[in-house]
């Protein structure tokens, strides 16, 4: 639940920001209290949107693998995703059983997305935004409200990042796990980091680091470039099948990650044989996995670019590719950078697909962490996890700096 909290927040906050506050202001003018206004006006208007978020998140949980795998598998508690993984990782692999489970998960995902689209259509009947300008209504919390809100934010940060990172760092500093008490300080050392950075485990970890860096650099670049081209055809083209192209670009989102990973495993084994066991099969799989998000980002940005800019380029005798490269891509750059960052973070930390497609030569850091954890080497897994988090934080900071500079130039 906590892992999906940020996604839920980003989806719900958009609903609040896009709601016309005139109905709430009318209620306030009638001397109705804030909580009563929220119960009788705000929540009923928001219900379709919130229901859509619930359906979306429920669909996303069908393919969740990492947490059930780490916390459930050792206790013999399984979900569809872990059953599929076990079926493909046993000797010999049972691809028939795994495919049947993947079909069930895929059907659940498609049904969930279908319900989500139905709900979002119903949401249009509750539209409150008109052509008139408006600003979202702000509520004065008061000293007590601000104190409670700050406390909840701090608690959320501790539960979602602070406490897990502290435990992860602590586990990386001791040879065997024990509670973080003063008497355990005598065992604290950097041996795990020395082992994976300069010791016998250096080759395996560095190979995973190189593969992860390759994914972080190549996957988002190709994904966002492909998304920009697809969005141009969807938004600008007059072709009759452009809606089909848009639907095909979004379809991978309806498929749980574990199902996508199994599909690409079978493709690598029997179709794209030269790519099996290489990092490039994971690159292709990740592009197909994240193209849905990329096109959603670039579609919205493309709608904001007026057609007359391209027409001016065409009138000047510029070819389509030249116009696209010199006009469209620079104007799309802020959205491309934002999408690049999202894809880079998710590709670098993604485990489900990478685990199904892994071999001795294409293992990435997240799969390395998984291997060390289930091999009983908790300190090595924790040390690699800490380094992966540091890598992602550096990536976020650098991308934010670049994004701000590009925004100022725009």
CATH architecture of the largest domain: Orthogonal Bundle
Largest sheet data: none
Sequence stretches where pLDDT stays below 50 over 5 or more residues: 126-133
Write down the overall geometry: globular
Number of helix segments?
Answer: 17
| CATH homology group of the largest domain | MetI-like
Quick check: average pLDDT? 80
Provide the domain count.
2
The secondary-structure class comes to mainly alpha
CATH topology of the largest domain: MetI-like fold
SSE layout and pairing:
Elements: H1 5-17, H2 22-29, H3 34-61, H4 66-72, H5 80-89, H6 95-123, H7 142-173, H8 191-197, H9 202-235, H10 242-250, H11 257-270, H12 279-303, H13 307-315, H14 320-349, H15 352-356, H16 365-374, H17 378-409
Helix pairs in contact: 1-3, 2-3, 3-6, 5-6, 6-11, 7-17, 8-9, 8-17, 9-10, 9-12, 9-14, 9-16, 11-12, 12-14, 13-14, 14-17, 16-17
Tell me about this structure.
- It is a single chain.
- The chain has 2 domains: 1-127, no CATH class; 190-410, MetI-like fold (Orthogonal Bundle).
- The protein is 74% helix and 0% strand.
- It has helices at 5-17, 22-29, 34-61, 66-72, 80-89, 95-123, 142-173, 191-197, 202-235, 242-250, 257-270, 279-303, 307-315, 320-349, 352-356, 365-374, 378-409.
- The chain starts with a helix and ends with a helix.
């Amino acid at each position: 639940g906590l892992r999906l909290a940020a996604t839920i927040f980003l989806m719900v906050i958009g609903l609040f920001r896009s709601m016309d506050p005139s109905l709430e202001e009318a209620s306030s003018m009638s001397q109705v209290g804030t909580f009563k206004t929220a119960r009788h006006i705000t929540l009923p208007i928001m219900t379709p949107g919130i229901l859509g978020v619930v359906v979306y998140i429920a669909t996303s949980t069908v393919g969740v693998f990492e947490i059930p795998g780490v916390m459930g598998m050792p206790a013999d508690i399984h979900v569809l995703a872990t059953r599929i993984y076990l079926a493909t990782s046993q000797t010999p692999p049972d691809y028939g059983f795994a495919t049947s489970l993947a079909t069930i998960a895929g059907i659940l995902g498609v049904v969930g997305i279908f319900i989500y689209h139905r709900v979002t259509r119903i949401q249009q009947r509750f539209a409150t935004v008109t052509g008139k300008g408006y600003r979202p209504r702000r509520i004065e919390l008061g000293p007590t409200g601000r104190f409670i809100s700050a406390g909840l934010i701090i608690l959320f940060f501790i539960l979602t990042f602070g406490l897990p990172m502290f435990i992860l760092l602590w586990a990386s500093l001791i040879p065997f796990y024990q509670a973080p008490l003063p008497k355990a300080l005598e065992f604290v050392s950097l041996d795990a980091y020395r082992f994976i950075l300069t010791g016998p485990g250096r080759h395996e970890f560095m190979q995973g680091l190189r593969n992860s860096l390759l994914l972080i650099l190549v996957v988002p670049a190709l994904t966002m470039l492909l998304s920009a081209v697809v969005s141009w055809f969807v938004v600008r083209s007059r072709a009759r099948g452009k809606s089909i192209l848009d639907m095909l670009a979004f379809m991978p989102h309806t498929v749980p990650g574990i199902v996508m990973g199994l599909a690409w495993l079978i493709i690598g084994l029997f179709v794209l044989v030269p790519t099996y066991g290489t990092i490039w099969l994971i690159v292709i799989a990740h592009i197909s996995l994240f193209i849905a998000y990329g096109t959603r980002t670039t579609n919205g940005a493309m709608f904001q670019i007026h057609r007359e800019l391209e027409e001016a380029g065409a009138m000047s005798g510029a070819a389509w590719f030249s116009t696209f490269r010199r006009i469209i891509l620079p104007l799309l750059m802020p959205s491309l950078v934002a999408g690049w960052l999202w894809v880079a973070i998710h590709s670098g930390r993604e485990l489900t697909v990478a685990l199904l497609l892994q071999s001795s030569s294409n293992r990435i850091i997240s799969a390395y962490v998984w291997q060390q954890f289930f091999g009983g080497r908790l300190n090595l897994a924790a040390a690699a996890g800490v380094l992966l988090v540091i890598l992602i934080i550096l990536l976020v900071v650098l991308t934010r700096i670049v994004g701000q500079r590009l925004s100022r130039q725009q």
